[in-house]
């Protein structure tokens, strides 16, 4: 298990035993490999929401709003339209050749998303986090993995204006199958 996910399990108990995903099939459908920490996160917790705020997008979620593959397509279309019509600027990190975004979490009630900053010559294990406010032009760059970012935000070790009101104690995780009934 990835060290960040292992640390996360110490502060947020995961739900009952989960079935590992068929990651090679999911990655083939997605058209990309995924970071090991994210695969461990989903295999440990499943899709769902940390502290009623950070929704982890899971592959094959019954609700397309929380499905990793559906949101990859939707967010790409939304951002392309936004940047095409302006006036919101693209984050500077996307100026590198082959740089891209892939969403991995949604922030409840804000329209904000957490994205991996991907690259043609960047291994998924080296993808870092770009957070977008969703209802404004604010982007935050966090040079850590997705699981490390979530852990750091929950413990208060990382600051994010986009995720500014999370508690630092008494964390919870609610799985999609309990919330969404699927």
UniProtKB/TrEMBL annotation:
<dbReference type="InterPro" id="IPR037883">
    <property type="entry name" value="Knr4/Smi1-like_sf"/>
</dbReference>
<protein>
    <submittedName>
        <fullName>SMI1/KNR4 family protein</fullName>
    </submittedName>
</protein>
């Amino acid at each position: 298990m990835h060290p960040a996910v292992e640390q996360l399990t110490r502060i947020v108990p995961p739900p009952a035993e989960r079935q590992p995903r068929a990651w090679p099939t999911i990655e083939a459908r997605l058209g990309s490999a995924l970071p090991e920490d994210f695969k461990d996160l989903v295999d440990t917790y499943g899709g769902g929401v940390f502290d009623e705020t950070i929704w982890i997008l899971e592959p094959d979620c019954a609700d397309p709003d929380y499905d990793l593959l559906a949101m990859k397509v939707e967010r790409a279309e939304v951002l392309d339209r936004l940047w095409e019509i302006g006036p919101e600027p693209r984050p500077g990190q996307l100026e590198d050749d082959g740089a891209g975004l892939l969403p991995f979490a949604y922030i409840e009630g804000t329209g904000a998303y957490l994205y991996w900053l991907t690259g043609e010559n960047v291994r998924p294990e080296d993808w870092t986090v770009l957070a977008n406010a969703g209802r404004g032009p604010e982007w935050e760059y966090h040079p850590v993995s997705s699981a490390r970012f979530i852990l750091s935000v929950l413990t208060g070790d990382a600051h994010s204006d986009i995720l500014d009101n999370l508690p630092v104690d008494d964390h919870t995780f609610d799985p999609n199958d309990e919330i969404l009934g699927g």
